[in-house]
Amino acid sequence: MHRTFLDLLEHNAEHAREFDSRFDEVQDAQHPDAVTVCCSDSRVLQDHVWENDRPGHLFTVSNIGNRVVQRTEQGEVVSGDVLYPLEHTGTELAVVLGHTGCGAVTATYDALTDGISEPPGIEYSIDLLKSRLADGVEALPDDVDRAGAVNRLVEYNVDRQVEALLEDDSVPDGVDVVGAVYDFQDVYGGKRGEVHVVNVGGETSVEALRGAHPEAEDRIRRLWEY
Most buried pick, 7, 105, 138, 164, via CB within 10 A? Predict the structure, then answer.
């Protein structure tokens, strides 16, 4: 058996010892306080970002490009893994969390500007992003470098995913939707590992967001107000 997996089992044994009594209240049902839609990336420790170690608190969804949509015979719809907690567990908050230096956004940028070839499974994910990022690529400032373009598109992608949640009739009324970016590259000028709010309920103006949410004013930042 691979040594890495044996190491994982050892860590799981410690986890089981620590968490043995923490499942009592959630063994039979879950009512998470939020669903978080994160990008699949080993650098983003998806529960630890929020210092969460409480079973049942967060319903964490992870995929390439923190997408909230999937393609069906009826067209593109909010993905079942995102919709489930909103529809069936009483969850009233959805958080779309992108991250700086996102590989999925980078690949989509390359696909839209130069063209790339990927295996079908990756191509499916990129295609779902391409349709949402194409206008953003066209609107990028002429003087922005590659890294700057990608990180602006990270915000743009978060905005488009928030928009998809707000516009889909299958999302229950009253669900709050927040878009944010996790920064581990010193892009936003805070501490590495901070989450910065870029969108609340479709509002993307930093001035308007800070005025409406003064309790989080210092965490509301954007690189790009297009």
Answer: 105
Annotation-wise, does 102 bind a ligand?
Answer: yes
Burial track 178-211 (b if 16+ CB lie within 10 A, e otherwise): bbbbbbbeebbeeeeebbbbbbbeeebeeeebbe
Which pLDDT tens digit goes with each residue over 82-118?
999 999 999 999 999 999 999 999 999 999 998 888 8
- Helix intervals (H) in 65-205: 80-88, 103-113, 120-139, 146-167
Q: Where are the domains of the chain?
A: 32-219
213 labeled binding residue: no
- Report whether 38 belongs to an annotated binding site: no
213 vs 226: CA distance, rounded Å: 21
In this predicted model, what pLDDT tens digit does every residue of 114-164 receive, in sequence order?
888 889 999 999 999 999 999 999 999 999 999 999 999 999 999 999 999
SS3 content of the chain, % helix, strand, coil (to 5): 40, 20, 40
The pLDDT of residue 116 is 83
User: Taking all residues of the chain, what is their mean pLDDT, rounded to a whole number?
Assistant: 96
Strand 75-78 relative to strand 194-200: parallel, antiparallel, unpaired? Answer: unpaired
CB 157 within 8 A of CB 204: no
The arithmetic mean of pLDDT across residues 54-62, rounded, is 97
CATH architecture of the domain with range 32-219: 3-Layer(aba) Sandwich (3.40)
